[in-house]
Every structure is written in structure tokens, then in C-alpha cells.
């Protein structure tokens, strides 16, 4: 009888260990997908930042040196291209090895700071020319890129995602203030140009973001399935005791929920901007 009991305990322990191994494998796979999806959200967020800057046009009542303005914007756009190339590179590295290399991480963070610096110079240009709402919009876009990088080039993290979400709200507020002014401050020709150039981009961006919403909901469902009850739940409990560690799958639920909130907000923001453009 004693031998049977020992054998039974051994089998339970082995089952728990196998369950634990299964949890670890599932966690690694889900974490990889979550990080990739978070990186995709960052790339789409960067597109929204640039779309916001692209609403800025010349003032009819207070004209500026437009050649100088174009020079400053070209610098912003050049840094933006570098940033997006690095973000794509980070995604490729996640696909290849599961994580972003230190070199790409550091380059992405530094590039975001360069973007912020270029936007600060652009903001100062507008301040010197009494373009207060334009200056505010530029600064908020620069701050957004820094928080975008903190999210995009690191492992998925609730606090980093929430910080970016909060900053994108500030960017949207700054953009709305400028667009309200643009209704009477920007020529009819320039307002028409904003609509024609941005509307199709916003439609595509909105579609991409809704696809991401579906992907994130799918990941959340997978996490919840892994945390389900029944016999598996019993084995999970045993595996925790056997390996003295928390369930790594559970740790993904909070950041994925934060990511879902962010992407839904970005999709709503794209829709709101398209609506604002129809009214200017």
C-alpha cells in the first residue's frame, strides 16, 4: 500500500511538473505575441502623432517664413522615418529571437529624444510667430514620441502603455485646440488639402487599429483560457507548489488589458480627427 501511495504522489508531482512546463511554454509564446502586438501599437501610434503634426498649416492672418517652416518639418520627418525603421527592426528581432537587442533598444530611445528635440525647435519657431496652438501641438507630439519609444522598445508593461495613452490624450487636446483656430485662421485651400491628404490615411490607420483590437482580444482570451478552472486548475496549483513560482501567464493579463485600452483610444482618436477635419 505504501508503495502505491508513493507511486501515486510521484505521478501527481510529475503531472504538476509537466503542467508547469506547459505553462512556461505557453507564457513564452503569449509574451512574444504580446510584445509584438505592443510594438505594432507603437508604430500605429507614431503614425497618429505625425498625422496630428500634418494638420499644421500656414496662418492667413499671421503669415510666417514658410520655407523655414518646411525646413524644420523636413527635419522632423527625417527623424520620424529613422524611428519607424528602428521600430520595424525591433519587430524583426522579436520574431527572430523573442526580444529586442540592446543596440536597437538604445537607438530607438535616442531617436525618440531626437524627434522631441526637433519638435521643440519647431515649437519655438511657431511661438516666435504667435502660433501658440501650433507650438503646443508640436511639443505634445514630441512628448508622445518619447513615451511611445518607452513602450515600443521595451517588453510589454502596463505603466508604460498607460503613460503613452495619457500623453496621446494631451496630444489630441492640443490638436483640437489648433483645429478650432484653423477654421478661421487657415485658408480654404489649405483646409481642403488637410482633408484630402489625411482622410484616406486616417481610414487606413483606423482599419489597422481595429485589426489590432481583434488580435489583443484574442490574446486576452488565450490568457484567460490558460488560467481556466477544472482539472487543469488543480494541476496549475500543484505546479506552483512544485516549482515555487507564480503563474507567468497571469502576469500578461494586466498589460494586455492596458494595451487594449490604448489601441481602442487610438482608433477613437483617428475617427475623431477625421470628424474634426470634416468640420473645418
Helical run tally: 8
Shape label = elongated
Mean pLDDT over the full residue set: 89
Cα(first) to Cα(last) distance is 84 Å
- Main β-sheet, in a few words? none
Instruction: Name the structural class.
Output: mainly alpha
Low-confidence stretches: 10-23, 229-245
In short:
With 280 residues, this protein is mainly α. The protein contains 8 helices and no strands. The chain has helices at residues 2-53, 66-97, 102-128, 132-152, 158-185, 188-226, 230-243, 253-279.
Describe this entry's structure for a reader.
Helix 4 packs antiparallel against helix 5 (158-185) and helix 6 (188-226) runs antiparallel to helix 8. The longest helix has 52 residues, at 2-53. This protein is 86% helix and 0% strand. It has helices at 2-53, 66-97, 102-128, 132-152, 158-185, 188-226, 230-243, 253-279. It has eight helices and no strands. The protein is elongated, with a radius of gyration of 24 Å.
Amino acid at each position: 500500500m505504501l508503495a502505491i501511495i508513493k507511486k501515486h504522489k510521484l505521478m501527481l508531482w510529475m503531472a504538476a511538473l509537466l503542467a508547469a512546463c506547459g505553462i512556461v511554454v505557453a507564457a513564452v509564446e503569449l509574451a512574444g505575441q504580446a510584445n509584438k502586438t505592443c510594438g505594432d501599437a507603437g508604430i500605429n501610434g507614431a503614425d497618429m502623432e505625425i498625422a496630428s503634426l500634418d494638420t499644421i498649416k500656414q496662418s492667413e492672418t499671421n503669415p510666417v517664413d514658410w520655407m523655414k517652416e518646411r525646413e524644420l518639418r523636413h527635419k522632423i520627418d527625417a527623424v520620424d522615418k529613422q524611428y519607424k525603421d528602428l521600430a520595424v527592426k525591433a519587430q524583426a528581432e522579436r520574431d527572430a529571437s523573442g526580444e529586442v537587442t540592446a543596440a536597437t533598444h538604445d537607438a530607438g530611445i535616442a531617436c525618440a529624444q531626437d524627434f522631441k528635440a526637433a519638435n521643440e525647435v519647431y515649437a519655438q519657431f511657431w511661438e516666435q510667430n504667435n502660433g501658440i496652438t501650433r507650438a503646443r501641438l508640436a511639443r505634445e507630439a514630441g512628448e508622445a514620441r518619447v513615451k511611445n519609444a518607452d513602450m515600443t522598445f521595451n517588453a510589454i508593461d502596463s505603466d508604460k502603455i498607460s503613460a503613452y495613452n495619457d500623453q496621446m490624450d494631451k496630444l489630441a487636446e492640443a490638436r483640437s485646440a489648433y483645429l478650432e483656430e484653423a477654421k478661421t485662421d487657415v485658408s480654404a485651400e489649405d483646409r481642403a488639402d488637410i482633408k484630402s491628404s489625411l482622410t484616406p490615411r486616417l481610414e487606413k490607420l483606423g482599419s489597422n487599429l481595429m485589426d489590432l483590437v481583434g488580435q489583443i482580444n484574442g490574446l486576452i482570451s488565450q490568457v484567460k483560457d490558460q488560467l481556466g478552472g477544472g482539472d487543469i486548475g488543480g494541476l496549475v496549483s500543484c505546479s506552483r507548489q512544485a516549482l515555487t513560482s507564480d503563474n507567468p501567464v497571469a502576469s500578461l493579463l494586466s498589460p494586455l488589458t492596458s494595451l487594449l485600452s490604448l489601441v481602442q483610444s487610438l482608433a477613437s482618436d483617428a475617427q475623431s480627427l477625421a470628424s474634426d477635419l470634416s468640420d473645418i
